[in-house]
Structure to design on (911 residues):
């Protein structure tokens, strides 16, 4: 139906091809997953389909894009609107109107559809996405998952033949992400719409994909069945990793498939009790930060209610919970910037809230959600100079080899994160808080971040990381705190918490039972037998 | 008969009245205020406006604007009076014998302070009240009509301008939010502390953020079909430009003719008429270029007609009084102002919306919870 022929794209001021001689055919009614490491050109490929590349990015595009045999490569995005629906990475940034109903109608208004048709389609779409109750709501008051569904709905109303989605679940909590994915599969199965989806957190999407288009970073594209592509893809979900290491063929794509395969493998079922009887009892007496009875309100609504947490030195604690559960507020309260109504925070005998910004930096380091907010200079070297004498040294120990003269905005997501983290660590705080650091990171970058956090704990720091990424938590965390509605609903050792709440359980523990977290553990246990 | 009544009642079920109707009503009342300086009539007008706003406004954000305008109106009256005290120079009954501040010879015709007369005070008060009442009428329109829906009822040719305004209105709070977020974030790291450097430290991320947002919005709008145009033949485009030029010339000459008393009246009327017709023609032709439609457009029903007509009647009454009952419209400052039945009735017609307009639609769902980052950034700045 839609055909890319020999697409080559060269970004401005560069001679390297992001896409090189790419051929791809999108079939009617299929779900095509575009995967690959960060910076391999996933967004560029989607942008070519929507017409945004090179119009909004600059650069040189060669090759042809055919719709049913007619070339549309020169057609501007607005003229493709009725055929190709595009939802960008941040749905909020693309909203034009301010209520749900008007947003759904906006695309149809531009196409000039008759009012009766518009009315009917808005109702149908509201039902299809299960958001009828939100119709009059202001878009800015919706939760992340709801916003994403409205954004998808707003392109569906024009009945496009292909829906193009750029990382639709990367900012969402596990449950909201499930909702959005369920919506997407409903589109493919019930309406027969083709969906092209870019994602680097593969674990949830792979089971639904009909084909995978893999970009490996050198500009070439490989397309094929999921099991074939994943055999030697550089980015794979934990289940596939497991299957590869245990030599399973075909590779398991869903938890169900893996569970059926795992029957043949002997393994101790209850890892939790195994661990408890083991010798590893952490020394929790070294508390870097202790807080009790934290209450924060906004216009008389409690955002945090009576939260007491302690961060022991040398351990990574993960903070989980829905979008809007109060995770960010808790981090800012512990850091001292957020005013609290009641409760106390103590780091090294002092209350960060009572200090000036400089004093706070020396006690608690906080990496905010948008790490780019911290950066304002033109080169990495200037940033390091402004950050303090040891910044460059710290940066090299985190991620070696970032060139001095590079602009911070040209760094990859992972490198930029490391730079921001180095700026914060230059004050040598005993407590480090991170707000959603895994957003936009691929598996390799997440693994590197996990190593960095491990390194911090070895240096005796207490680390608290707020995240939605259950696989990352399984890899890095020692303890988990789950927040809901501003209250702590469960906290404790990572194995026992993930055993209690299936929503926060990683794939491995879904297959092998509670307590099993990492692929490595399972592989070792199996090999021992 | 009863079915007719029921049909009429349907139009009064709770809904938002057409914003244009509210503006016609408010402009009519403002016109009345501009035709008179009679303080009693102006007070009555202010009362009418307040009653209608209290009866008909909804609970949305813009409905709270009225109080702001009331404050502004009061401020105007007070300033007006203060200036009269400062630059007195109206002969009459002296209330307070203030000393005159001597000014050099060359400042002719200006007197600072000096004896304060009752006449000067009243003249300032009447004048201020007139301007204040006009401002209040504009405030009423702002409180009653949904500004975004007003932009939706613009003629298609002006659609792009309307969208730009809507986008600007939405982006402004986002910018404030981004400012607060960056401020909180910059405090988390060491860096330049000098005055100029600190400004840069804080401006660069905000501007980068704003630029990225606008690119994302532009991309979002483009991929959803914003800016699609129907191809029009060159001849039509030329006719449109000619019509627009004619309308501009006609309107300019017409306005000049009205303001300049020596030009014959027929010229003013003809030129204004010609200008208006050409403008309407041009806008319609240019509107054909835009192929978009409107989702759930506001409908014009009998309550809208009543509201708009009441504004027109009030304006007409004001005009008639200013022409035929000059002592009522512009009372002398030496005697107590008087009113006539017609002048009062003319204002009271403006109450019609309070009876005819439907109740506003039930308020939108108010934010259950703002995003956490918003909350933090607000607190962080405080």
């Amino acid at each position: 139906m839609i055909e890319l022929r020999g697409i080559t794209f060269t970004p401005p001021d560069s001679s390297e091809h992001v896409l090189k001689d790419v051929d791809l055919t999108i079939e009617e009614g299929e779900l095509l997953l575009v995967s690959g490491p960060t910076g391999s050109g996933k967004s560029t490929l989607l942008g070519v389909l929507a017409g945004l590349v090179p119009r909004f990015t600059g650069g040189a595009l060669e090759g042809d894009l055919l719709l049913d045999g007619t070339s549309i490569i020169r057609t501007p995005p607005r003229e493709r609107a009725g055929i190709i629906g595009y939802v960008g990475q941040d749905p909020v940034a693309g909203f034009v109107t301010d209520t749900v109903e008007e947003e759904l109608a906006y695309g149809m208004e531009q196409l000039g559809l008759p009012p009766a048709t518009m009315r009917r389609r808005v109702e149908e779409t509201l039902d299809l996405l299960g958001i009828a109750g939100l119709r009059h709501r202001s878009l800015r008051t919706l939760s992340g998952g709801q916003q994403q569904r409205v954004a998808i709905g707003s392109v569906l109303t024009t009945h496009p033949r292909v829906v193009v989605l750029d990382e639709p679940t990367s900012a969402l909590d596990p449950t909201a992400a499930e909702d959005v994915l369920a919506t997407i599969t409903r589109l493919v199965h019930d309406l027969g719409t083709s969906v092209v989806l870019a994602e680097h957190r593969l674990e949830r999407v792979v089971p639904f994909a009909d084909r995978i288009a893999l970009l490996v970073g050198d500009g070439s594209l490989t397309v094929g069945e999921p099991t074939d592509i994943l055999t030697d893809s550089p980015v794979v979900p934990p289940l596939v990793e497991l299957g590869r290491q245990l030599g399973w063929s075909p590779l398991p794509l869903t938890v169900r498939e893996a569970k059926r395969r795992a029957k043949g493998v002997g393994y101790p079922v209850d890892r939790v009790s195994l661990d408890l009887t083991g010798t590893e009892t952490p020394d929790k007496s070294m508390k870097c930060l202790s807080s009790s009875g934290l209450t924060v309100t906004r216009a008389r609504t409690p955002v945090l209610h009576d939260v007491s947490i302690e961060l022991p030195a040398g351990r990574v604690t993960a903070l989980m919970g829905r979008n809007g559960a109060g995770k960010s507020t808790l981090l800012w309260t512990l850091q001292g910037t957020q005013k609290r109504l009641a409760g106390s925070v103590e780091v090294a005998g002092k209350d960060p809230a009572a200090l000036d910004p400089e004093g706070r930096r020396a006690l608690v380091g906080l990496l905010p959600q948008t790490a780019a907010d911290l950066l304002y200079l033109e080169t990495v070297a200037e940033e390091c100079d402004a950050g303090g004498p040891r910044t460059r040294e710290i940066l090299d120990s985190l991620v070696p080899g970032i060139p001095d003269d590079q602009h911070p905005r040209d760094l990859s997501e992972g490198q930029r994160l490391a730079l921001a983290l180095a700026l914060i660590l230059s004050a040598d705080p005993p407590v480090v808080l991170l707000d959603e650091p895994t957003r936009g990171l691929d598996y390799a970058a997440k693994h590197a971040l996990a190593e960095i956090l491990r390194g911090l704990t070895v240096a005796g720091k207490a680390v608290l990381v707020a995240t939605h990424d259950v696989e990352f938590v399984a890899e890095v965390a020692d303890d988990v705190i789950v927040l809901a509605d501003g209250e702590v609903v469960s906290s404790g050792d990572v194995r026992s918490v993930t055993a209690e709440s299936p929503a926060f359980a990683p794939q491995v523990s879904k297959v092998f039972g509670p307590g099993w977290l990492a692929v490595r553990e399972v592989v070792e246990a199996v090999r021992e037998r | 008969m009863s079915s007719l009544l029921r049909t009429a009642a349907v139009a009064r079920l709770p809904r938002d009245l057409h914003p244009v109707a509210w503006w016609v009503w408010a402009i009519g009342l403002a016109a009345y205020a501009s035709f008179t300086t009679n303080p009693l009539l102006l007070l009555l007008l202010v009362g009418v406006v307040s009653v209608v706003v209290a009866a008909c406004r909804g609970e949305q954000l813009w409905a709270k604007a009225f109080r702001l305008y009331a404050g502004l109106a009061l401020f105007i009256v007070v300033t007006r009076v203060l200036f009269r005290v400062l630059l007195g120079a109206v002969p009459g009954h002296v209330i307070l014998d203030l000393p005159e501040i001597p000014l050099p010879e060359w400042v002719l015709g200006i007197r600072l302070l000096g004896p304060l007369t009752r006449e000067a005070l009243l003249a300032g008060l009447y004048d201020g009240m007139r301007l204040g009442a006009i401002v209040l009428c504009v405030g009423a329109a702002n409180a009653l009509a949904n500004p975004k829906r007003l932009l939706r009822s613009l003629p298609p040719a002006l659609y792009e301008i309307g969208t730009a305004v809507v986008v600007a209105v939405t982006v402004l709070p986002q910018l404030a939010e981004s400012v607060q977020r960056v401020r909180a974030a910059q405090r988390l790291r060491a860096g330049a502390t000098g005055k100029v450097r600190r400004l840069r430290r804080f401006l660069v991320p905000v501007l980068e953020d704003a630029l990225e947002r606008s690119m994302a919005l532009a991309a979002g709008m483009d991929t959803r079909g914003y800016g699609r145009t129907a191809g029009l033949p060159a001849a039509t485009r030329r006719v449109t430009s000619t019509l627009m030029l004619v309308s501009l010339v006609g309107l300019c000459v017409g306005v000049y003719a009205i303001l300049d008393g020596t030009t014959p009246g027929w010229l003013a009327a003809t030129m204004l008429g010609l200008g208006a017709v050409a403008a309407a023609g041009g806008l319609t032709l240019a509107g054909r270029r835009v192929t978009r439609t409107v989702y759930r457009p506001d409908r014009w029903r009998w309550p809208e007609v009543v509201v708009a007509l009441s504004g027109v009647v009030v304006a007409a009454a004001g005009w008639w009084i200013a022409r035929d009952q000059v002592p009522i419209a512009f009372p002398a400052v030496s005697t107590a102002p008087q009113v006539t039945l017609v002048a009062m009735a003319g204002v009271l017609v403006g109450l019609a919306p309070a009876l005819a307009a439907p109740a506003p639609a039930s308020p939108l769902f108010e934010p259950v919870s703002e995003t956490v980052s918003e909350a933090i950034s607000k607190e962080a700045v405080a």
Confidence is low (pLDDT under 50) at residues 276-280 of chain A. Residues 174-191 of chain A form the longest helix (18 residues).
